[in-house]
Design brief:
Layout (H helix, E strand, L loop, with lengths): L22 H8 L3 H18 L2 E8 L5 E5 L2 E9 H25 L4 H4 L6 H4 L21 E10 L5 E9 L6 H14 L1 H6 L8 H11 L10 E4 L8 H11 L2 E3 L4 E4 L2 E6 L2 E4 L2 E4 L22 H6 L4 E3 L16 H9 L6 E2 L3 E2 L3 H9 L4 E5 L8 E3 L5 H13 L4 E5 L5 E6 L2 E10 L1 E4 L3 E2 L5 E4 L15 E8 L8 H10 L1
Parallel strand pairs: 3-23, 5-13, 6-7, 6-11, 11-12
Antiparallel strand pairs: 1-2, 4-5, 4-20, 8-9, 9-10, 14-17, 15-16, 15-17, 18-19, 19-22, 20-21, 22-23
Helix pairs in contact: 3-11
Length: about 500
């Protein structure tokens, strides 16, 4: 299988084969003793553990039977993207997220895309994430996914060059941005000399952009909108991120019990009495937001919240019902959405996808299971999927039975050879497969910081980058083309911001 490496033009890695945008870093890396790099990695682990940058692993238990928390392994070697590649990717991300927001609005209003025969009606009303309670509800600026995490992979084309593809759209409660920010801080702490030698675009202003986006989503009339972060609590796997973002934005971190609905408005309890809430950045799934409407046993949300929301007295970010657009069964239609709503050709391509509810696609998938990646349409986190080339005969036969029993519950894709990037592992520096999750913010305009979370599959040969499956993370650099020494003013700004 062809492979594209981000740093080297060919593998095994040779110093003379370094790509142009990696040359300055490659020269620096060649001068670093292994012992020094290993000591830096240990220092990073110590700091991350001291700060509490961990994630909970659902279903995993320690020796005492308690739930476990783990560090997401941090790799010292950055993933570098030249500015011209990022500029094109950014345009594609803006285009895609704009179309997805148009689609969600259309789903809950006129359903023009269904009437036009572009998306089958059953793919919407039969979708588990479709919320009838949102039909006819108007939201500010017609924005539903204010924070979108779009997973992008790079794979070789027929000429062996790398092409970017969108692998997945995460539009409900996408996570991981805190690791993007902490990875940059760690790199600047461990290797400050690198940031004086390279023109690396800053990312530390993300919390400012996030707060600006959330405030812009407030209902008209809220002159100084009060923003809060709603968390399921400290036992949630992403609790560190919830607390981190609330602290960085300077807003309150609340649980459902801290909120109440009175006179059609949402209030938070404070030591000085009740204070009205205008915008809720929720990190709680739809099903748990309001026990009066969704799951009646939920204690994570606030009773009456949906009444206040539908009355236009509070904004929930991301909007309720947004998940109808990030289901894997909807993913194949996104290129058509872009053409339907924007009249444009997609800048970023989807991975070719077989929709197993289509008889012809199902037949092909059943005949080629050993070659394909098969995914549950509602699966996440690397679970509920079959990686054909790495699967046993028994696993393939189990998936064959599942497909035949419920073909509409699955899609399949070719096994892409995700691009690799040099990674510092126990045996030294070796290529490992990666992906990228940029975070796109949609308020009165669509904007993002230059970069994202690069996830890396630390197991040799593995294509699964998810942290729950043993993956790690890297700092992502967007580098000015040519990487000439930066002007002093630019350098000082990036150092201050990062």
């Amino acid at each position: 299988m062809l492979n594209f490496d981000e740093m080297y033009t060919q593998l095994p890695m040779q110093g003379s084969d370094v790509r142009e945008h990696y040359k300055g870093y490659g020269q620096w890396l060649a001068r670093q003793p292994s012992d020094t790099m290993r000591a830096r990695r240990e220092e990073a682990e110590m700091i991350f553990r001291r700060v509490g940058i961990t994630f909970a692993v659902y279903g995993a238990k320690d020796e005492d039977g308690a739930g476990t928390e783990r560090l997401i392994p941090f790799d010292l070697i950055p993933r570098i993207i030249p500015a011209h590649e990022w500029a094109s990717m950014e345009q594609g991300l803006v285009q895609r997220v704009t179309a997805l927001n148009r689609f969600i609005h259309d789903v809950y209003h006129g359903q023009e895309i269904v009437k036009a025969g572009v998306v089958p009606a059953e793919q919407i009303v039969g979708n588990s994430q479709f919320r009838p309670e949102m039909v006819g509800v108007d939201v500010p600026n017609q924005i539903y996914s204010h924070i979108s995490g779009i997973d992008i992979v790079r794979a070789p084309d027929a000429q062996g060059k790398g092409e970017y593809y969108v692998l997945e759209d995460n539009l409900r409660v996408p996570s991981g941005v805190s690791y993007m920010l902490e990875n940059r801080k760690m790199m600047m702490r461990l290797f400050p000399d690198l940031f004086s030698q390279h023109r690396v675009a800053p990312v530390a202003h993300y919390p400012d952009l996030l707060l600006e986006t959330l405030r812009a989503s407030a209902q008209p009339g809220a002159a100084e909108p009060t923003v809060v972060v709603l968390t399921p609590g400290m036992y949630n796997s992403a609790y560190f991120e919830h607390a981190f973002l609330a602290q960085q934005m300077g807003v309150e971190l609340l649980e459902g019990q801290d909120l109440l609905v009175r006179d059609g408005f949402v209030w938070m309890r404070t030591t000085r009495g009740l204070r009205r809430v205008d915008v809720i950045y929720r990190r709680v799934d739809d099903d748990f937001l309001d026990p009066n409407v969704f799951r009646p046993t939920s204690t994570l949300g606030c009773a009456g919240l949906m009444d206040a929301y539908r009355a236009g007295n509070v904004t929930i970010c991301n909007a309720v019902g947004t998940g109808v657009a990030d289901d894997k069964s909807i993913y194949p239609y996104v290129p058509k959405m872009i053409e339907f709503y924007l009249g444009e050709k997609p800048i970023l391509n989807n991975v070719p996808t077989y929709v197993c509810r289509n008889p012809e696609d199902l037949k092909y998938v059943l005949d080629h299971l050993k070659e394909l990646v098969v995914k549950e349409v509602h699966g996440a986190g690397g679970y509920g999927m079959l990686v054909g080339p790495a699967a046993t005969t028994a696993e393939i036969e189990d998936f064959r039975k599942a497909l035949l029993a419920n073909p509409g519950g699955y899609i399949a894709q070719p096994t892409l050879s995700l691009s690799s990037c040099p990674t510092f592992v126990d045996s030294g520096i070796a290529p490992r497969h990666i992906d990228l999750r940029p975070f796109v913010l949609s308020g009165k305009e669509v904007q993002m910081v230059p970069g994202g979370l690069t996830r890396v599959a630390l197991k040799e040969g593995s294509l699964v980058v998810n942290s729950s499956q043993g993956g790690g993370t890297k700092d992502t650099w967007i580098l000015e083309d040519g990487d000439s020494p930066p002007p002093r003013t630019w350098s000082s700004q990036s150092q201050n911001q990062s």
